[in-house]
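Incident log, support desk, overnight shift.

02:14 A customer reports that sequence design results differ from what the structure should imply. Their input is reproduced verbatim below. On-call engineer (initials T.W.) acknowledged and began investigating.
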């Protein structure tokens, strides 16, 4: 199976998942792992960060051909040359019909990305169709890769200490919340100025994350939240299934984006627990609550008690789905 940010459950988790990630004594955290064990260094790193010339160039051209919003302000200006224009035209013709989300859902584009991800800067993309490879090689000569790599490496250098300080508690807590083991380590992460249509995305089999070094909402402490947000897509299949089943028992379709809203809420609150009350989660900063992710209140009312150990997962999902469907119904009546 391959998925993007696609997403689940323990029969009765009565621990305190979010509290287990704080610096409380082990006796205060009866979850899968105490904070003391969660802080212990793991045998293998959680993530493996990479900055790749061909990965970045591929995503840049794909963004130029399919994007519906402006590039990040700090992104490089596209070369003003016929070779660049021809490459963008090629990408538009080949991949434009699949749209910006093609990098997430199209098997051919996923395979292309995986192939390019493992190429060194001095190697040639020989596994691609000849015309595709020719456009990449021609445009590579137009881009200051040293400057682009420096930006990506700076992003990695700022994120790695945060992962070192907070990563193991994140892993332990998210495993508890979704009752799913963490994927094999390290999860490969490609860092690129351009990273799909929304700043980051994840595909599976194996888990592979791409994250933007240019999007300001993915920088500094925000990068810690969002790298674990992306990784949560590899843990949450059971949650999505439980949400769908709860909605079907009520004779309705599951609320749109509810599974994704759960990920935003959970990872954002965990980041706030770890980083301090000054931290504003991504969904708050970007105005997603009340918009694309729906209202925050059902999550705070029905999901937070599960995170606090006051109900089990099945109870939380049933209550959350019931509340979300009621909110949707009330909204339809006012439209």
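02:41 Re-run completed on a clean worker. Output:
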């Amino acid at each position: 199976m391959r998925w993007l940010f696609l997403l689940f459950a323990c029969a009765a988790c009565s621990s305190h998942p979010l509290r287990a990630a704080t610096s409380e004594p082990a006796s205060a955290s009866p979850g899968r792992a105490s904070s003391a064990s969660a802080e212990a260094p793991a045998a293998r790193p959680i993530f493996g960060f990479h900055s790749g010339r061909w990965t970045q160039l591929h995503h840049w051209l794909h963004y130029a051909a399919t994007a519906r919003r402006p590039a990040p302000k700090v992104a490089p200006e596209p070369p003003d040359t016929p070779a660049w224009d021809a490459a963008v035209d090629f990408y538009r013709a080949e991949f434009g019909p699949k749209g910006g989300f093609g990098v997430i859902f199209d098997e051919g584009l996923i395979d292309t990305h995986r192939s390019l991800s493992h190429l060194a800067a001095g190697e040639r993309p020989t596994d691609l169709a000849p015309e595709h490879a020719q456009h990449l090689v021609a445009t590579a000569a137009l881009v200051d890769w040293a400057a682009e790599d420096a930006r990506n490496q700076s992003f990695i250098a700022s994120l790695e200490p945060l992962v070192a300080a907070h990563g193991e508690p994140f892993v332990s807590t998210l495993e508890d919340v979704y009752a799913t083991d963490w994927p094999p380590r390290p999860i490969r992460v490609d860092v690129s100025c351009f990273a799909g249509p929304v700043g980051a995305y994840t595909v599976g089999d194996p888990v592979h994350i791409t994250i933007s070094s240019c999007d300001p909402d993915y920088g500094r402490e925000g990068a810690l939240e969002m790298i674990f947000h992306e990784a949560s897509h590899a843990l949450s299949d059971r949650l999505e299934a439980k949400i769908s089943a709860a909605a079907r028992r009520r004779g309705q379709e599951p609320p749109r984006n509810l599974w994704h809203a759960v990920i935003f809420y959970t990872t954002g609150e965990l980041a706030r627990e770890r980083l301090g009350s000054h931290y504003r989660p991504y969904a708050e900063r970007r105005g997603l609550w009340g918009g694309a992710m729906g209202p925050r209140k059902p999550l705070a009312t029905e999901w937070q008690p599960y995170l606090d150990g006051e109900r089990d997962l099945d109870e939380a999902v049933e209550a959350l789905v019931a509340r979300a469907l009621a909110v949707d119904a009330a909204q339809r009546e006012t439209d």
